[in-house]
Structures are given as C-alpha cells and as structure tokens.
Amino acid sequence: MAYDIIGDIHGCCGELQTLFKKLGYYEENGLYVHDENRQLVFVGDLTDRGPESVKTIEIVYRLFKNQLALYVPGNHCNKLYRYMLGRPVQVKHGLETTVAELEALDQKERRKIYHDFMSMYDDAPLYLQLDEGKLVVAHAGIREKDIGHVNKRIKSFVLYGDTTGDFDEQGRPIRLDWARHYKGKTWVVYGHTPVKEPRWKNHTVNIDTGCVFGGKLTALRYPEMETVSVPSEQPLMEDKFKDFGD
Q1: What is the DSSP letter of 167?
Q2: CA angle 79, 10, 161 (to 5 degrees)
Q3: pLDDT attached to residue 127
Q4: Where is the Calcineurin-like phosphoesterase domain (predicted)?
C-alpha cells in the first residue's frame, strides 16, 4: 500500500482540499479518491485555531468511515474529545475557535459532529504501524523502544512529545529533541511541532509545517519518501515555528 500522510491541519480546510488535488485525489460522492490505490493518513490535530474545524472533521470522518483514510489523534484531538465528553478542560490554546463553530450549529448538526468525531477518536489507534512495521505514524513521535507498546507514559509522549514539564516565556511546553537521538530503522512520521520545512532527522520526518500559522500544509508520500506542500491561506506568525538549528 502507498500512503499520503498529511500533517497537522488545524481547521485549514481550504488548504487541505488544495493539497488533496495536488496529490492527485478527486472528489466523488463527497469522498476524495485516488486512481492509484493510495491511502490517506492523518497525523492528528485536525481542529483548533483555523477557520473551518467542523468542515475538516466532516471530511476526515467520511474518509475514515469509508476506509479511505487512517487517522491517529493529536493532543488537540484529545482535548476536544474530553470537551465533548463534558470533562473540565480549558477552552483556550485554539479550542475556543472550534467551540465557537460548534455552538453556532443547530442542535441536530452539533449532535452529529459530536458523534462523528468521538466515534472516529474511539476507533483510532494511539499510533499506526504500517508496511509490516517499516513505518510508524505518531502525532508527536515515539521512541524506538516504545514501538509496539502502549501505556500511560507512551500515550503522553505520542500526544504531547518529549516534554520536560516546564514552560518557556511564552507559556509553551519545553520539548526535548527526541528525533536527534532516534536510532531506529523504522521510519517515524509525525507532526505536532511547527517547522518551516519538513524536518528529516535520522529515520524521522516532521511534517507539521505550520499551516495554521501561515506556513504550509505538507504531506509525505510513502514509500516514495517525497513531500508535497501547498501554501497557507493564513497570516504568517514567525514566532510559532521551531528552529532546531540542524
């Protein structure tokens, strides 16, 4: 199977549809299909901050339900899921934009979006092992020793990255550069931390190119190991991008 793995969308639905076309997908009965039997894979963080989180959920859910796409959750997906369950979460850091969209829907529409997103989240694995174990897709990455396992510590790493527990002067979690120390042969494709260009480090690729912050929306084509990007329609926010100094 050949895959097109798409980085953090964050409600940038226009860019997502443009990327589908650039990758060779076309719309058919509300679904996006490809003539070469390729499968879409989403690395999580479908919603928050961008202008069309609800529409993004609708598109990805239809693809997922019809087995035309795979999906793993990101930290923003996890928070939205907890919000929909009615658990106490802080409606900030982008969630407020999704909540505003949900509250603008009528009750029937809102109930359907809740059902669709929560059922997709419930059915999704924490991370994907594909191509007989040669490829892993995990939202914020995964350590080599943790591949094939799931526990509370691994879940935290996969959703939030290798965090220290401290915060920088802008209130963002301080994250360690796990990819720099990765020694595995399995390719790990991930997102979570916005970078100006796809970051190739050892056998890892970060494809979150900060679309919602004015960068690009990027896909990695596997097994070709080529990236395909479309420019963002959002205003550029330079301070949101991480420079690893590679």
Answers
A1: E
A2: 55
A3: 98
A4: 5-199
Residue 105 tokens read as 């829907």
B/e letters for 92-101, b = 16+ CB within 10 Å, e = fewer, are: eebbebbbeb
Residue 79 identity = K
Q: Any idea which residue has 């914020």 for tokens?
A: 140
- Which among 69, 62, 40 has a CA at the least distance from the CA of 117? 62
Q: Which of 121, 132, 146, 139 is nearest to 222 (CA)?
A: 132
Q: And the tokens for 109?
A: 């529409």
In the prediction, which pLDDT does 175 show? Answer: 73
CB-based contact 40:2 (threshold 8 Å): no
135 in Cβ contact with 189 (< 8 Å): yes
| Distance (Å, whole) CA 191 – CA 142 | 11
| pLDDT tens-digit readout, 146-194 | 999 999 999 999 999 997 667 666 666 677 799 999 999 999 999 999 9
